[in-house]
Amino acid sequence: MLPICSLFAYTLNMLSKQIRPLLSRAAAHQNAPQTLPASLRGYAQAAAVQDTKLPLAVFGLDGTYASALYTAAAKTSSLDSTSKSLAALAEVFRKDIKLSGILTAPTLGAGEKSQIIQELQRHIGGVDKSDTVKNFLKTLSDNNRLGILQGVCEKFATLMGAARGELELTVTSAAKLDSKTLQRLEAAVAKSEYSQGKRLKVAPKVNPDIMGGLVVEIGDRTIDLSVSSKIAKMNKLLTDML
Hints:
Mean pLDDT: 81
Number of strands: 4
Radius of gyration: 20 Å
Distance between the termini: 56 Å
Strand content: 5-15%
Helix content: 55-70%
Oligomer: single chain
């Protein structure tokens, strides 16, 4: 994996003084009516003709785009290469936590978007032989939706996992967990009824806001053992007593 190009750092510096006061505008833009662009509707409709079925339903605007991309990739028999391409992009987001903020900045011009897309394609490399992801990135850019790319990567991975018979096990902690701890958690869940007898795919996440403990999500179930949750429950109990 190539290191994050100086383009991202340059773009961030250029926008840093403007991003904060414009975050509210970016949020408003993200909450605009979630209408699928004509280009993606065409992908989905064409794939539907080929009797392509989603392995499960994913929700939200990023889920809508991920579903359309899945059907498009299925139509062109490029699910595997598309999955690898999005996994490469997900790694870019993991290594550069500022990238997501850059992509949601409403001040990004057409030229800057084009440069960012070119850099993202460099990280994908030659995996995207059918240009499915290349065209998808352009569609996101044309419709001012680059800000949901990270979510699309996550939702697409969920779809692929379901298609392979995997069950995603998301483990959120306040600090990064070591591999041994993750393996122990995976083994414990695999032996429980929560695994449904399926192969687990562990997806660790870090969220300092939970303060400590763990939040474990598997399928449609959530086990919240976080410190923040315990504090919230304690506060509610004290409020109810007063």
